[in-house]
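Input record (one chain):
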Amino acid sequence: MKMIKFPYFVCCALLISVWSEAREIFSPVQDIIKINTTDTMATFELHCSHSSTICRFVLINDDQKTIQADMNLEPKRSYQRHTFDNLEPKCWYRITKLIDGNVIESGRFRTRMQAPSVPKINELFCLNPNELLVRWSPPIPVHQEGKYSFRIEWWPNTDPNHLYWAVVSIQNDSQQVIDPYSVIIRNLSNENYRLQIQSHLFDTEYRYDLFSDFSSNQEFNCIINNDINMDNMEILWLVSIIFLSIFATLILLLVIWYRYNDFRSTKHYDLEHFQKQFQLNDMDKK
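The corresponding structure, as predicted from the sequence alone:
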């Protein structure tokens, strides 16, 4: 029998072709490509490179080992974009490709941190005609790891383009500070200003910055009005004074009403006594 000899380069080409076909299916993270992640979503390009079998993609919570999503993809050569939503912020997940129940490849990723909430201005208090104390509420959520900072902007009403700003950074040991969510604005002039605050959160691991919308701007003027916003204690004192004033007024009205009725009853008794005495005297004369 005559043996057919293949050229060396043909054998190499066949081996490379077979290896490439196997690598197309079994090579790690070849058919799972991460496109983009947010705090609650992850978008991938998925590919079922098998010729006839349906590919199964499973999204698993990497910490709790629970299935978050399960989808099937028809066999085809083109990549398909798919988005997994309702994910937890800053949580590790693993997306796995299975064919006939066998794990083909797997990729691990982490969602981004949740953007900080819009800061709420709690107090604007003028320390003097040129200085303003600003207090705001902590961001939500406060348990996220990262560096928080706040951008405070203020500008005159007459010139909105003349913008002033300051940045307050919250350190990891901010619990030792009496009031970390506050700042004193100085060098104010005698005019009306507007002020707004924005929250920033910097992810130190992935090196990106998240920020909230600006708070609703508030107007202030330290010359015209020294107390811009009343805090809770001032409101409580004001309500207490009003309540005590109303209570004292009611007590005074009750006292006046009681004394008036007592005076009327006494006067009526004296009149009857005088009439009886007058009648007795008249009878004695007769």
